[in-house]
Amino acid sequence: MSNPSPSDPLLGPADVRELAGALGVRPTKQRGQNFVIDANTVRRIVRTAEVRPADVVVEVGPGLGSLTLALLEVADRVTAVEIDDVLAAALPATVAARMPERADRFTLVHSDALRVTALPGPAPTALVANLPYNVAVPVLLHMLDTFPSIERTLVMVQSEVADRLAAGPGSKVYGVPSVKANWYAEVRRAGAIGRNVFWPAPNVDSGLVSLTRRTEPVRTTAARADVFAVVDAAFAQRRKTLRAALAGWAGSAANAEAALVAAGVSPQARGESLTVEEFARIAENAPHAPQTPKDHAPHKEPGTP
Known about the structure:
Blueprint: H1 13-23, E1 35-36, H2 39-48, E2 56-60, H3 66-74, E3 77-82, H4 85-98, E4 106-110, E5 126-130, H5 136-146, E6 152-158, H6 159-166, H7 176-184, E7 185-193, E8 198-199, E9 206-213, H8 224-236, H9 242-245, H10 247-250, H11 253-263, H12 276-284
C-alpha cells in the first residue's frame, strides 16, 4: 500500500476515509461502490490505459476521485459521469482543492451513464473507469456504442467479468459480453487488481480489460441490433445446437437451419464456437425482414448471462 506524500495530489487511504466521513458517504453494494485507496494502483491504471497528453478521457463512476486525479495528471481533459448525488456534488471541489492548476480541465456530468447520449466539450478519445460491478457490461457497451470517437478503453471490473469480456470462441466463459465487446473492439485482459487497494475490500477479485476500437468495423450488411439479437438468442440456450437455440429467433428450427446453412455455419454448432463475423453472417441471412432500423441508436444492453 502506498503512502502518498503531503505534496502528492492523489488520494491515499486516510484521504479517502476522511473525505467519505466528511460527506457522510458509506459505500453501498446497491451501486457496487468500492473506492480505490492506493495511489500506485490508479497511476498503474493510467499507464496501462496508455493515456496521452492530448486525450479527452471519459470516466464512469468516479466516486471520491481517486482515479479522476490520476487521469488529470496526464490527460488533456477528463469528463466524469457520476450518478450519486452526494459524490457528484463533491467531486469538483475535491479536484479544485487537490489539483487547482488542472481544475479547468475537469467536467462533471451528474447522470446515469446508461442514459448519457452526449457529453460536453470535445469528443472523448478514451474511456477509463473502475466500473460498478453490477452494471459493468451494460455501461461499457453503451459507452462504446454511443461514443464512436472512443479509441481506447481500459476498465476495471470483477475478475470473472474480465474473463468473459476477453474470452475467445471455444472458451467456456465465451458468451454474450465477449461477442458484443468484440463487435466494437479488440479485447484483451490487461492485468489483475488486488482486493486490498479498495475500501471496503470487495469479496471478489478485480481485473483490467483493454479494448482497442476496431480500425474497420465488422464487415456486414446487417444492423448491429440484428446481429446482437442473434447473439442473445444463441446464448439464451447455450447448451443447445444453434438449430434449436435460434428456432425462436427464426420462427422455426427449419428456418434457423436454412439461415445457418446460408451463412456457412453448421446447424449443429453451438454459439460458444462462433466469431462475431459468423453471427453477423447469420443475421444477414435472417428468414424475415429486419425488425430494427439499421442505425446505431444508444440502447441498454442486457447484463452478463
